[in-house]
Amino acid sequence: MQHLPKVSILTVNYNQEDMTREFLGYVKNLTYSNIETIVIDNGSNPSLSEKIKSDFPEVIFIISEENLGFAGGNNLGIHKATGDYLLLLNNDTILHTDFLEPLIESASKLKDLGMATPKVKFFEGENLIQYAGATGIHPITGRGRSIGHLEKDTGKYDTIYETELAHGCALLIPRKVVEDIGIMPEIFFLYYEEHDWCQKAKRKGYKIYYLGVTEVIHKESVTVGKANPLKTYYLTRNRLLFMRRNNYGWRWLFGAAFFFTISLPKNLIQKLLSLEFQHAKAIISGAIKGLLMKKTHPSDEVFVNKNNKALMNQL
């Protein structure tokens, strides 16, 4: 590429300063030369130290006094970003030094690009894939699946193709798309927000792509944990909420019927039999909230300013 598009790398920190420091080390070693890096400290206690700020003077640090969730934290960075592309990366990802060049080169050739994710591989295990594209969220079950999940990486997915969903741990979106569709939906707080964002982009005529020409390594489940009632609550609540926001008519009716007559009883019985009572409680409260809560949010109508790329200079 003769002109290197500017890339704004955004990552959210929540009580993980050491991990964020390691992540910034990977970013610092990237060979791509036109980058700005934004770290959003999402209500950490204690907040990020002055040491990390002085060690990475080139990084823009945004401090939020409260935890705004995955979408809310990223949206602070989205408003501040000035890049042609915004790249949302979890702070538990590992980046190869030359990771960014093929990603941006491939993305720049896709005129209908809404969002994209590179190949994502697990940190643990023997060269195992976490994501190589994804199916859509089924209107009845409210479930989707990652393509290539737990397969060994043999090079089979070293290609580019249209897919249904991007992955939130490494999500690339052109700035012009954010200007068109708005910021990430904050109603979800945790889980399903990038899926909902993808649906919004597709309704506007954009496409979601898997860019298997490069990869990130993901230390999965560091932020929330593998067996946490909080995770159970948000997955249950947001599964229903996603279906309510994106399914209409018979799709929603059949989806709700499946959830409450099959999925919910099955999950409850499994948790009760395994004596995971906190998880059972989380399933019930998540289902009630997901069904009854308002399905719209003020962030659904918030857009970044096309003329002033840095709306939040006061931060």
**What CATH architecture label of the largest domain applies?**
Alpha-Beta Complex
**In the CATH hierarchy, what is the superfamily of the largest domain?**
Spore Coat Polysaccharide Biosynthesis Protein SpsA, Chain A
- Percent of residues in helices comes to 25-40%
Stated plainly, the CATH topology of the largest domain is called Spore Coat Polysaccharide Biosynthesis Protein SpsA, Chain A
* Largest sheet geometry: 5 strands, mixed
Rg computed from alpha carbons, rounded to a whole number of angstroms: 19 Å
Helical segment count: 9
InterPro entries: Glyco_trans_2-like, Nucleotide-diphossugar_trans
Keywords: Glycosyltransferase, Transferase
Organism: Marinigracilibium pacificum
Domain Glycosyltransferase 2-like: 8-178
Task: Describe what you observe in this structure.
The structure is a single chain. The protein has 315 residues and is of the alpha/beta class. The chain has 2 domains: 212 residues, Spore Coat Polysaccharide Biosynthesis Protein SpsA, Chain A (Alpha-Beta Complex); 72 residues. The protein contains 9 helices and 10 strands. The strands form 2 sheets. The chain has a 5-stranded mixed beta sheet, with helices on both faces. Strands 5, 6, 7, 8 and 10 form a 5-stranded mixed beta sheet that branches. Helix 7 packs antiparallel against helix 8 and helix 8 packs antiparallel against helix 9. The longest helix is centred in the last third of the chain and has 24 residues. The radius of gyration is 19 Å and the shape is globular. 42% of the residues are buried.
